Backbone:
């Protein structure tokens, strides 16, 4: 079987929209496997989708075609794009949703929102070739009419350059970056998951082994990083633990509970890590 | 790969019911692909399921087998039926859930609920051949015991007429129809989606180009139809927009927001369109 | 196509965790079909997952590989195990989540929690062979790093004994058992489904035909078992009905409504069945 098509949208699960996209895909390529990454991105939350894609794309097989439909500008002049990367391809609106994915290929990602050059290992295209679309094309459901059929044609072996015209820049909505100063790392929560684990923008490499780091969030202090949700280290604030999560970033959690609920915080909440002095 | 089996139920996603249906299908036809249309039809809401199926069925490949389990009368004398249409097949309880799909094949659909003759291009069957069922057959889960195995056998090439006895009529629960009078179209909201977009029963053909139509709902007036959620037309009521949605019907929406929440309305809410006088 | 891999987790549907597991599986075995049983097990609710698996496993094809990730002890000393049964295989943390499945193969299941010997028809293994894992192995997401890749390798034909070392005992968290005394059966609700149907631990065989049994729950009495949600038997308490559900256990339901909501009860609620005296 060819590599899968992977769908990420803010469509929710109660409407037929996702199923219809799958019907359109299978009408063009009956052999392809289709996987859901998630359809519960908050409506129009481009930053959330960008994080989810950035944290996930390296776990999919070579050749995977990702379709991303978080698209507040559907039907306007925003571009529909194809990003052809060394391992996988992305079809998405050009609204910043691919920023975290792109960051993995950039040596010096811009700090401010705007546009970014397509990295040299990648190729960008604006989708313009209407023969690969479903007609009539609606103004409000490009997932069904443009992205799904384009993905199906790609999965059949149509070459990326056949789908549109080369594009040298993409819209860039970077993640907030942590700041290091005076032995501290100042970051923030960027994602809160189903368990209420708070995932920050502070990567493992800024903390080191971390056993004696102190983590502060909303007036609470957590002494030392754990290695699992349930290890036996002592802790001044018994409910909260800090650890390097499966995404490779600092996470704040409550074992068998929800840190998001306990602290009543979400994305944007400041997090401070105090590192031990190096002797 | 053969055409897919598509599942539509009110089973929700927390219980194992949908997964068990898939297990039964794959036990009979290990090769078939299975797609979810949605499992979040409101419990026993036949009208909602009928709309979802009517709006979606034409996007699935030729030969698709749809399984619909919104079945308040499971285990009673209501029939289990197979509707064999020119493009796709439906397995469902005979309770009206196929009415919107049938309407696409009827020249003059009845206005009132009751029964309707199976259209001449289609064939109807009552499922009676128990050798295609899973035994023992429960009284409460025909999705698992009758519909899923019947769909799997159909996908293996069993002929429709082998599954039961011909049926000439099906239960009919029509959508409310819009009324035209004095240059106005009087309709209603028939579906509210995940984004809070309000989809009405007023089709595009009753409005025409629509740029100067006025739309009224719950005391609000919307001047002119948009072509996208975000185009730049002026509007007396800044939050609300009206447009022809991807289903082909008039929709009322709030860009980057929820019209259902803003207006606090849902299915059944009256909608009035005033058309410009033709010169 | 080979038998499917079936996923059961408490990961929810909003995060990319389930999709990432599927990506890892398809990177190892691009041909395998993957089915979701449910991902809405309540976080860390081992008993709920155990019930769902016990009620479902016999509906999946011979050779199915089940992956279960309800894993509060992830990263601790709890074992990761493979249970190789006559029909299907299970990969899971060793925390009791397989207890209901195991019970189907035990002549005399222990009444108390603890450990239980792997039944003679089955084989148990502790997953220890790290060459079948995804590296680096995180401490918090063994679904992605251990269970998903092990399942993919099994589906490719790797022998169970290659994945680890034999294991003779598994953690045992039995369902509460009903008690028979003085012509009564004393049980309890063990699962409340999406419709609000209350599924008890009282199996059909303890009630017999049941037409004249009386069922008591939270001060309500239900006279006689129905055969469907909507049959016509008389009933002193008009809203509630009792019947043998599709799982084979006594269920308490409200036709077109929710017994869980009406009674405001859930798992643990006592249920008493009074049997007619046998002449």
Residues:
């Amino acid at each position: 079987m060819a590599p899968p098509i992977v769908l990420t949208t803010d469509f929710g699960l109660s409407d037929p929209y996702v199923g219809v996209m799958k019907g359109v895909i299978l009408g063009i390529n009956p052999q392809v496997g289709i996987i859901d990454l998630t359809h519960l991105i908050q409506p129009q939350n481009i930053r959330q989708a960008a994080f989810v894609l950035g944290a996930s794309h390296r776990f999919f097989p070579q050749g995977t075609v990702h379709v991303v439909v978080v698209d507040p500008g559907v039907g306007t002049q925003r571009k529909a794009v194809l990003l052809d990367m060394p391992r996988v391809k992305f079809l998405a609106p050009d609204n910043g949703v691919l920023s975290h994915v792109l960051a993995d290929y950039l040596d010096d990602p811009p700090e401010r929102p705007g546009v970014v050059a397509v990295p040299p290992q990648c190729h960008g295209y604006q989708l313009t070739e209407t023969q690969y679309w479903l007609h009539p094309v609606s103004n409000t459901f490009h997932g069904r009419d443009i992205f799904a059929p384009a993905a199906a044609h790609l999965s059949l072996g149509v070459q990326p350059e056949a789908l549109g015209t080369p594009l040298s820049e993409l819209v860039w909505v970077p993640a907030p970056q942590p700041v290091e100063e005076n032995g501290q790392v100042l970051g923030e929560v960027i994602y809160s998951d189903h368990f209420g684990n708070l995932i920050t923008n502070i990567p493992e490499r800024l903390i080191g082994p971390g056993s004696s780091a102190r983590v502060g969030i909303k007036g609470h202090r957590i002494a030392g990083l754990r290695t699992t949700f349930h290890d036996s280290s002592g802790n001044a604030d018994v409910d909260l633990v800090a650890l390097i999560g499966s995404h490779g970033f600092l996470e704040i959690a409550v074992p068998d509970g929800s840190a998001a609920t306990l602290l009543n915080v979400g994305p944007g909440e400041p997090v401070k890590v105090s590192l031990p002095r190096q002797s």
